[in-house]
Amino acid sequence: MGRAAQAALKPLAAWLRRWDYAAAQRVTHFVAISAEIQGRIRKYYNRDAIVIPPPVAVHRYQPAASHDDFYLIVSRLIPYKRIDVAIEAFNRLGRPLWIAGAGRDAERLQSIAGPTITFLGRVPDSELPDLMARCKAFVFPGHEDFGIAPVEAQAAGRPVIAYGAGGALDTVIDGVSGVLFHEQTAGALIDAVHRLDAICFDAGAIRDNAARFDVPVFKLKLTAFVDKCVNERATNRRIGDQTISLTR
Predict the structure, then answer these.
(1) N or C: which end of the chain has fewer CB within 10 A?
(2) Mean pLDDT across the chain, nearest whole number?
């Protein structure tokens, strides 16, 4: 937008922020999908939130008896996913990286990809379990609020190489279900790949970590939280009614 439009919209944006904050104060309970979002709710709304991660269909994925040598990304091809960082890293490593997905950044990413990078395009959902089970490791270079795909890869028994921020801090256990790197640079990702090479991962332990996010676990946590909130409200109403009666 031009400067004139920005100047005109500035008062409106300020009003919207005040309105949004006031609306948030009327919410009785917040549920966040990750510690990252819990922190944002605290920062911007000054409110507490419980973390209940979104459900992942862990049962759809199973570890394979063996795996291939390719590394895998499953993602929309859009800039904030930082797939360009992974492409630069694997260009320099000379290792095979398969990228499944489509998006507006596809042409730019293909233009910087070397001969070891393979673009699979949009992969049918039914083929993803086998693809994830066969990869050497799943690569997750973006900063996400949660990130379902890394959990799906772990459900298939494969370790994850993830940027250590956002939801990945909740879903990837460094040294157990994958490795984390803490700068969104090709060099940091290359170091993480080498560190992963030195670790002997247990597919069962990786899948056990993914099981924390399975659909039945989500249902139990959410149902328990809603029941707790309803019971607390009913108790507060009874206490309020008793207070009114005593006052009368």
Answers:
(1) C
(2) 94
